[in-house]
Amino acid sequence: MAGQITFKQTMEKPMTERQREIFLVIDEWWKRFGFGPSIDDIMSQTGDKGRGNVVRVMNRLVELGICKRTPRRARSIRPSYLRVNKII
Question: Which residues of the chain have pLDDT under 70?
Answer without folding.
Answer: 1-4, 84-88
